[in-house]
Design brief:
disordered N terminus, mainly beta, single chain, five-stranded antiparallel β-sheet, 11% helix, 8 strands, three-stranded antiparallel β-sheet
Length: 96
């Protein structure tokens, strides 16, 4: 789907599970691309031990945006980041 893989915490990388074990949410809709939050299911993590990935796009020019990826290992850090960078009016939790 997006080239992301999720693995079980107890497997420790022995078996890779495909992308059907994560949820994707649109946080902010931009003109060219949307800021998207990918969250692993309960008791699953992304490769590298991350529980969530946030793909953000900043305006570069009329044809493309600059992509940055933020990775989170704890729920508290994710919530703090969302509180600092997104207002309640901006957040559009649209599940993909």
């Amino acid at each position: 789907m997006y080239g992301l893989t999720v693995r079980s915490e107890c497997d420790k990388g022995r078996e890779t599970i495909k992308t059907n074990t994560m949820k994707a949410f649109i946080l902010r809709e931009n003109v060219l691309s949307d800021n998207t939050l990918y969250v692993a299911e309960e008791n699953k993590v992304f490769k590298g031990g991350y529980i969530a990935l946030l793909k953000e796009y900043k305006y570069a020019n009329a044809w493309c945006d600059k992509e940055s990826v933020k990775r989170f290992r704890s729920k508290e850090r994710l919530i703090n980041y969302l509180d600092r960078n997104y207002t309640n009016e901006e957040l559009h939790f649209v599940e993909l």
